[in-house]
Amino acid sequence: MALEKAAELVSGSGYVVALVGAGLSAESGIPTFRGTGGLWTRVGEPSMNGYEQFLRDPIRWWEHQLDPGADPARTEFREAIDSAEPNAGHYALVRMERLGILKMTITQNVDNLHVRAGVANLVEIHGNRTKVRCIGCEMRWLRESFDYAKLPPLCPDCGSLVKGDTVMFGEPIPPSVIDACFRETALCDCMIVCGTSATVFPAASFPRMVKENGGTLIEANPNPTPLSESADVVLRGPTGEYLPELVNRLERL
Ligand code: NAD
Ligand code: ZN
What we know:
Layout: H1 2-11, E1 16-20, H2 23-26, H3 39-43, H4 50-56, H5 58-66, H6 72-82, H7 88-98, E2 102-107, H8 113-117, E3 122-124, E4 131-134, E5 140-142, E6 162-164, H9 175-187, E7 190-194, H10 205-212, E8 216-220, E9 233-235, H11 239-252
The structure holds nicotinamide-adenine-dinucleotide and zinc ion.
């Protein structure tokens, strides 16, 4: 059965990496963006040139950010994140890491739930909603610890603009982050793709690169994705159920 086969693949691999998407946090009550019940499915896709708008008028962008009434969809997403707790899927990844099996988690999620679950090795490819970041030197601060008395906020170190850490449409992924992703993908010989539709690039290219390098793919997702066909094993169900089951088997091996 699929779980047994997944456990065998994982335990026979030398460098296991998890690639995570919004589905892992769905059971924590945070809506995905796409698909049934997804935030964008209900309210429409956001502007595709967010970063350009930020650069053109950062004061306006920050005023909008700091006004809780400005964007109801954003407020709904923030409130869901603020009241969310890590679920069994997040904890299963931490258990796998502590077994020495999972070497890195690359997440597309911005909700900070991996950190709260206690993960040690994490790349947040789309940033972290609880932080702000300097677009010049990549320094990060906790969102609430930064001073917004004078807009736009500037980096005390290099003087560049400070924005939310979350990567916007049209914004390049910060260099240290994308470098870490490619480094980990090159090392990886088994990628567990958890709750992602695998349609957002560059993250969607990592599993394909693992395959091209001769590695294996395990997909955990209740719905088919463009990756399903090339997966060596598909765990067709919620990550909050399947990932703990997978780790239970790994602990017994
Ligand atoms: P997506 O919204 O495109 O796809 C979500 C995937 O999760 C789907 O394939 C769906 O079948 C799957 N899914 C739904 N319920 C699941 C469950 N219980 N267990 C496992 N899988 C489940 O998400 P994406 O591919 O991650 O891309 C959307 C982008 O939006 C991401 O890059 C991310 O930055 C951002 N996002 C983040 C959060 C968050 O931080 N929690 C939430 C929504 C969107
Ligand atoms: Zn700086």
